[in-house]
Design a protein that fits this description.
The longest helix is centred in the first third of the chain and has 15 residues. The protein is of the alpha/beta class. It contains 11 helices and 20 strands. The strands form 5 sheets. It has a 7-stranded mixed sheet with strand order 2-1-6-5-9-8-7. Helices cover 25% and strands 23% of the residues. It folds into 2 domains: 213 residues, Spore Coat Polysaccharide Biosynthesis Protein SpsA, Chain A (Alpha-Beta Complex), CATH 3.90.550.10; 153 residues, M1 Pyruvate Kinase, Domain 3.
């Protein structure tokens, strides 16, 4: 394997100078196949009553929003249990779709980090689909047929539900209203990844362990663990310091098999421990990464493929998803004292077990990290 690895590393070094970046609008990926076939469902919501609809110049309602893993669509009628079920004959909004990429983009631009997608009061949140392209067309998702009718245009309530400025930012991308053409069930796509929070760094420039630094009253380690949960991870590990007790978090702690070898050692150990086909790697010192971004990242690559963010040609290997079958590659690099996480990420792509996820320049702030007390103050 050593000769092949040397050749791969040489190839990558040669390609670095000529690599081209493809900037995608927002965070949506174009696909060659049918939009419905490529659509993935991240969230499903219903509500028994209206909070905004019919409340013009009145206070909003207080009907709960209920997140479901599965909803039942009834042809010509709507979603069982939802406020628009049997609302009127041939109603154009029997079900609504909304892009998780759009929600994430709006929240990022408005500095919103604590809102769930359901605040928009849409039913189905998707990734990987251009919803506007479905207007005027029939399409199928998970065996259920729909007719795309019109944009679900945003109104002034969005400024209240999300943040001031949301209505303007959502113009032209407020989601899709559709009619239901056949009976059937929609389900959220199952999670296919574990997660590890990398918290074992020396924090020498910070002067104290970054994992225990607080932002908005919460330690960075607790925050990143919650992000991993919210991303849909089925199991979570903490790659930490050997002399630190992490038992309060009730997640397995992992000690590196290659002590002192940096983040790649933590990645290798997590790939060894994981039961899932993919693992989300998340550094503890990234305070502006959000759960929705991580969900989009996970959905960006099919099957058991990894997904590596790339911003302006620069790889971001510590907020990435790696396939479990990359463990041998990580082990071999570490054994040879090749400890670069970026080189490992590039090799995963070179071997065809991961793909790059090009992040628009407007999203650069997501990868701001804490290295010193000055960074901490600027983030706050």
């Amino acid at each position: 394997m050593a000769d092949n690895l040397d050749q791969a590393l040489r190839t990558i070094m040669e390609e670095r100078g000529t690599a081209r970046q493809t900037i995608r609008k927002g965070l949506c990926r174009d696909e060659d196949n049918g939009v419905g076939a490529q659509m993935k469902i991240s969230h499903l919501y219903i509500s028994p009553g209206h909070n905004f609809f019919g409340h013009h110049e009145k206070p909003p309602g207080a009907n709960p929003l209920i997140e479901r893993s599965e909803i039942h669509c009834v042809s010509g009628r709507g979603i069982e249990g939802d406020r628009f079920f049997d609302y009127k004959d041939d109603y154009k909004g029997q079900i609504t779709f909304f892009s998780l990429e759009t929600f994430e983009d709006v929240c990022y631009r408005l500095g919103v980090h604590d809102k769930a997608p359901g605040v928009t009061r849409r039913n189905v949140f998707t990734t990987g689909a251009d919803l506007n392209s479905l207007i005027g067309h029939e399409f199928e998702v998970q065996g259920v047929r729909f007719a795309g009718i019109a944009e679900c245009s945003p109104c002034y309530w969005m400024d209240l539900a999300v943040a001031p400025g949301a209505e303007k930012l959502l113009a032209g991308r407020g989601g899709l209203r559709a009619r239901i053409l056949s009976d059937g069930k929609l389900s959220t796509d199952p999670a296919t990844h574990s997660a590890v929070v990398l918290a074992g760094g020396k924090s020498s420039r910070m002067g104290s362990d970054k994992a225990w630094m607080e932002i908005n009253g919460e330690t960075m380690l607790a925050r990143q663990i919650q992000l991993a949960r919210d991303s849909g991870a089925v199991e979570i590990f903490i790659s930490g310091r050997a002399d630190t007790d992490y038992s309060e978090f009730s997640f397995p702690g992992l000690e590196d098999s290659f002590p002192g070898a940096g983040p790649l050692a933590g990645i290798e150990r997590a790939l060894t421990a994981s039961r899932s086909p993919r693992i989300l790697v998340l550094a503890v010192d990234l305070p502006r990464i959000s759960a929705s971004f991580l969900r989009i990242l996970a959905a960006s690559a099919p099957g058991e493929m990894g997904a590596i963010p790339r911003l302006n040609g620069k790889i971001e290997p510590l907020a990435a998803i790696y396939p479990r079958n990359a463990r041998e590659l990580a082990f071999d690099l570490l054994r040879r004292n090749e400890n670069s996480a970026s080189a490992f990420a590039e090799l995963c792509v070179h071997r065809g077990i991961a793909s790059f996820f090009d992040v628009p320049t407007s999203e650069a702030g997501r990868f701001t990290n804490w290295n010193s007390p000055a960074d901490l103050l600027s983030t706050r």
